[in-house]
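Aim 2 progress update. The chain analyzed this quarter is reproduced below.
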Amino acid sequence: MSSALLYGVALVSGTAFVFFNIAQVAALPRVVSRAQLPQANALNASAESAVTLIGPGLAGFIISLARTTVTGAILAYLLDSLTLPIDNVAVISYRLALTPDALQGRVNSVARLLALAGLPAGAAIGGVLLGPLGPRTELWLVALGIGVSALAVSGTGLCRA
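Predicted structure tokens:
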């Protein structure tokens, strides 16, 4: 598997994710009533969080079961594509409930841009650090970052909102 192929798959996958993600947020208010919107978004966020926690370990396990790493990666990507529709929108339920209908598209687009803009840089930095640090050290750094983020948020009024 060449680097160009991996970059191509990442580009197509990322582009599809962005379009799906924006479409899902825009369509949900048309599927459920305004009163049900916070609960629907909370359910979406819960499912997304569960997949985010379980997915990477499961992908590694799936790759290890295949005869070759390439076959395992193809199978893992296939299964990953089945989980893509789950969206992490815990905060969106409040935003949708408080934002006037006429501003929904603008507010949601900007929020998505801010939320997703760091993903490519984070993936690139993670790829660069993987070689010199190794997977175990890098995973510990990710866990530390998640822990620091959780502590930072818990010290604000966001958890009580």
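Helices lie at 3-31, 37-65, 69-83, 92-98, 104-116, 119-133, 135-154. The mean pLDDT is 75. These observations will guide the mutagenesis experiments scheduled for the next reporting period.
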